[in-house]
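Q: What structure does this chain adopt?
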Amino acid sequence: MSGSGSRRIEVSVDRPANGGEAVGRADGRVVFVRGAIPGERVLAEITDDRHDAYWRADVAEILDASPHRVTTPCPAAAGGAGCCDLGHVAPRYARELKQAVLLDVLGRVGHLSEEVVAGTELAVRGVRQLGDADTGWRIRSRLAVDEHGRPGQSAHRGSRVIVEPCVQPAAGMLDGLAGRLFTPGAEIAVVLDSAGTRHITELAPVTAPRRGRGDSRRRAQQNRVRRARPRTQVVVDGEATALHRVGDRSWRIPVAGFWQAHRDAPRAYSDTVVEFVGAHLTSPARVAWDLYGGAGVFAGALLDAEPFGSGLESVHIVDSDASALDAASHTFEAEQDRVLVHRGDVGAAIAGPAAPARPDIVVLDPPRTGAGEQVIGAVTAAGPSVVVHVGCDAARFARDLGLFERHGYRVAEIRGFDAFPLTHHVEAIACLVPAAAG
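A:
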């Protein structure tokens, strides 16, 4: 915030914003208020007033509380961590807020018509709950280590580490960690695998970021990039890889590697992919692409799906993560004549002269940055009968669906999942088919 001292303003907030804040107006400006719920009147402390069009603020005092406000069950969030940023909202109502955010960005960012969106499950049924619990769902976690060697959650702002426990990790994941010391500045990757075994790997500290006044979201993205770079890893407990199962297939994934955080997510997403493909595939499928496919969970689901899976002659997994593709090669070792892995940039891999055979089915699960123009252009140019797009960032997901529409595909279905309870994050899956098919 510019100027000296703090400044508080009264704000009546009326709608949710993508990112977990609530939106209101004060002094003729839009104000994004962290910790507020639509319908509340709050006293908010301004944290960023550098922009002419909007300010950012944190709740300082609740003047008129929402009936959906609850006491957060997360000690870490109560202490200032960024983990459970919607812990103050009743979970059922939080899912309604996530539905509203998705519907908003689909129109505002993706420019999808109300008519297209209105018939989808997302609009009719809302965001689905995963499992039956809103706490204890996380089976993969990254902890920061403070200057004293204590592990904990990163604070919402700054480099402070909150050592109070978070309620998201599954039972047993963090047992005994409160009394252990690690390398100051390191990160601790903790995984509870499908066999119920806990694995812990310590990742060496990253280079300290440059100081500056840059946008907080940009700094967060830069921090994620730094953390993703190769670092020395030391196995603390368990093994270097964790066993994960989906259906009858299993994968060995590095403890610091990617796997869905919610214990029920891999199965729910795989079932949705298969359901969407089965409902909208109009002719026998011989080739499928699993883009940003990692270890190939969706590839396995497609191969095992009936009735179309047995007719697949080849499934191509494309990703830039060497360790994930190694895990895929091991899992599909007995099917290497049908499952082919391609390492490299997804856009270049599917558009170049060495691109895989033209697909009948395409599944893509890009990172938070989304797929973008190059990849979507290459996918639609290949002419698949069915595309299933998985998105973990609402705005980028909406943008990508708009790009598909402009490239001649229409949205046939959208389903939302509360894959990160007590947080603002939401997962969405869309099925697209050629517009001419409609």
